[in-house]
Amino acid sequence: MTKPPRERNVTATVTFLEMTGKPAGGPPPPRPMMKVAILRAEQPPIHFYKYLYSEIGRDYCWVERLMRSDAELTEMLHNPRVHLYVLYLGGVPAGIAECDFRKDGYGYIAYFGLIPEFVGRRIAPWFLNQTIEMCWSQPINKLLVNTCTLDHPRALPLYQRAGFSAYGREERLIPIPTDFVLPEPRPGSGPQ
Fold it and tell me: How many structural domains does the chain have?
């Protein structure tokens, strides 16, 4: 008797973006109209990270980190060159920016997003601006990020408005656990 598959593949178009210098642009996006704080979570408990990651990523097929063991996640998140920033609005967690500086000279925004209740409130441009500033405070020459057609449909334009330029695009098969409920297709979620 064969076991049912544990994963299925979903096709996505991935867009790779880069920023080769700290942006000198105009004024930053307006700050949210409530109490706001961005704190670096130093050696965060894995359950806290998984909660944020799952809540933010549930509509965008964020599953890669959930498929790793707790030991693997701990090793990665407790590395001093991986920074997890948590956005708090009104005293509650509202988003994360996971930034990886393990490759000399490079910063990589591995994950960036908001808890669903905070999406659509014009918070993301401000939070991304703050994240970019924090990344360029590190000794880097280039800042990278990518997005795909499974992400929020406004993710790619947000990164481009912030100063990132696309340098590549490719089709990928994303392994998704069979017990993960795929979100309904969103309007405008076609190729980016």
Answer: 1
